[in-house]
Amino acid sequence: MNAKQAAGYKAAEWVRDGMTVGLGTGSTAYYAIEKIGEMVGKGLKIRAIATSNASEELAVKYGIPLVASSEVTRLDIAIDGADEVDPQMALIKGGGGALLREKLVAINSDRFIVIADSGKMVSQLGGFKLPIEIVPFCYEWTLGRLQERYKVEIEMRQRDGQLYVTDNGNYIADASFGKIVSPGELSHELKMTTGVVDHGLFVDIADTVIVGYDDGRTEVIGKKE
Ligand SMILES: O=C(CO)[C@H](O)[C@H](O)COP(=O)(O)O
User: Fold this and answer.
1) What percent of the chain has pLDDT over 90?
2) 94: buried, middle or exposed (CB in 10 Å: 19+, 13-18, 0-12)?
3) For ligand 1, what atom is nearest to the CA of residue 81?
4) Which atom of ligand 1 is least distant from the CA of 200?
5) FRET pair for 133, CA 20 to 30 Å: which of 34, 101, 190, 192?
6) Domain map of the chain by residue range?
7) pLDDT value at 225 more than 70
8) How far is the CA of 28 from the centre of ligand 1 (A)?
């Protein structure tokens, strides 16, 4: 068992009969979805909302019943990966481009469990490029305003030589902050920038972090039991 698998499988222990579950995106969330699928196969009764088209496909593959957002007011639990986790459980997410749906699902869940291999734990956020989701209309102006304001390298994410397009039809700009001194302030400021839809800073959202290690051990850190 690898570190991501250990964390993903451990998180599935919090999923109980009758719950509505948010399914994250990425290679760590993959293992949680796989395990939950196995539990559903053995009779667990849940409904789920996926944070990306890719995770929705996985849920279908593993036989996890999906529910429309119109039928749900709140989720019981959401389980998702992260690119960086600091000691206050603030996160950088969005390496896989799903940050907007991930944040929507996380903030509408009674419990948000982050699953991460130990390499994601950092003393200060910012080593990983911060993904910022921006609208395609006049995106060059939004990019320019961000570069002017923060004076750090910010580049448009590309895939196959084209601008990367999110599941929501937006673009992503990746910002190399290096060190983020005040994640809360930056989060608020970015959110106030016209043209920015959302960004990958998740501050005061995570309830629990499950850290996975290469030897298969896990460590549970958190505000909630
Ligand atoms: O935020 C995400 C996707 O938008 C992922 O959760 C994050 O990038 C971590 O991915 P992985 O588990 O593959 O390392």
Assistant:
1) 98
2) buried
3) 6
4) 1
5) 34
6) 3-120+203-214, 130-196
7) no
8) 7
Q: Do domains 3-120+203-214 and 130-196 have the same CATH topology?
A: no
- The reply, when asked if residue 80 is annotated as ligand binding, is yes
Q: Which residue has the tokens 């750090």?
A: 152
How far is ligand 1, taken at its centre, from the CA of residue 106, in Å?
14
Coil, strand or helix at 158: strand
Catalytic residue among 13, 56, 57, 102: 102
Output the residue whose Cα is nearest ligand 1's atom 8: 95
d(CA 43, CA 182): 45
Token reading at 3 = 């570190």
Domain 130-196 has CATH 3.30.70.260: yes
Domain 3-120+203-214 fold is Rossmann fold (3.40.50)
Q: Beta 201-202 vs 158-159: how paired, if at all? A: unpaired
What atom of ligand 1 comes closest to residue 93's alpha carbon?
Answer: 1
pLDDT 10s digits, 210-224: 999 999 999 999 965
Taking the centre of ligand 1 as the mean of its atom positions, its distance from the CA of residue 121, in whole angstroms, is 13
pLDDT in tens, 14-61: 999 999 999 999 999 999 999 999 999 999 999 999 999 999 999 999
Q: How far is Cα 154 from Cα 164, in angstroms, rounded to an integer? A: 14
Give the pLDDT score at 1: 84
Active site residue 102: yes
